[in-house]
Amino acid sequence: MTTLALMGLSVIAVWTLAELTEEVVAGSTSNLDRDILLFLRTPGDLSDPIGPWWVEEIGRDLTALGGVAVLVLTTVVVSLFFLLQRRWSTALYIFATVGGGIVLSSIAKEFFDRPRPDLVPHGSLVHTASFPSGHSMMAAVAYLTLGAMVARAQTRRALKVYTLAVAVLLTLLVGISRVYMGVHWPTDVAAGWLGGSLGHPLPFGRAQSGETRAYRQRGKRSVRPAAFPASDVKTAAHPGMRCRFYFVKVVA
To answer: Measured between alpha carbons, how far is 167 from 41 in angstroms, rounded to an integer?
Structure first.
């Protein structure tokens, strides 16, 4: 049931991304983008984002979480965690997913070549096109992938949910900060979220630790009474049954 739900969400995300891209190319989202961007600016002073100075500082810190340096460092750290557990396929999957996301984001930017917002001053240095938001897309690719893989390594459902919630929260905060800093249109960020959220692994699989696997393997073996002293073990067999009962003398 969970797999079907995830597949359904993926189909919806693909359809929504396609529709959003069509609307952006046609210019139908210009008014919405403009209204949201201006809403986040102080009336009468478009160079000043709404909120006190410390909110602006938080915005700069959050937008850095979607930068290449932070995401590469985070990816390497988590991948090494799985490599130390000898989970080679998991580490390779993480590298391939994040690396592929960087390539796809760069190709999409070059293809659409949408200009950056010019209504307000930029609160961060930018050098590439606007659509889709690279920070938002890479945050979704990296954090959701890492969150899903770490969640699969957990045995408690509460830990799975917590790990995924943190990954989703980081992804949302990075995207919102890009609009707040005035370096992206809102639809750029929405497209980045949708594009980066596709193709993630199912996080609610049954995780098996090394100890759990070893325990289950031992459980498949027959338990022999040799672990008890021979003098303390008596056996009896019922003539109509194929099993043998063992009686162990318990010494107080």
So the answer is: 28
Instruction: Give me the active site residues, please.
Output: 135, 184
Using DSSP's 3-state secondary structure scheme, residue 46 falls into: strand
Query: Using an 8 Å Cβ cutoff, are 181 and 123 in contact?
Result: yes
Question: Average pLDDT of the chain?
Answer: 81
DSSP annotation of 239 reads T
10-13, Cβ contacts within 8 angstroms, sequence gap of 24 or more: 10/198, 10/199, 13/194, 13/197, 13/198
CA 201 vs CA 15, 49, 147, 150: distances in Å: 19, 37, 10, 11
Q: Checking phi first, is residue 125 left (phi over 0); if not, alpha (psi -120 to 50) or beta?
A: beta
- Give phi and psi for 224, each to the nearest 5: -95, 145
Instruction: Give the mean model confidence (pLDDT) for residues 173-193.
Output: 95
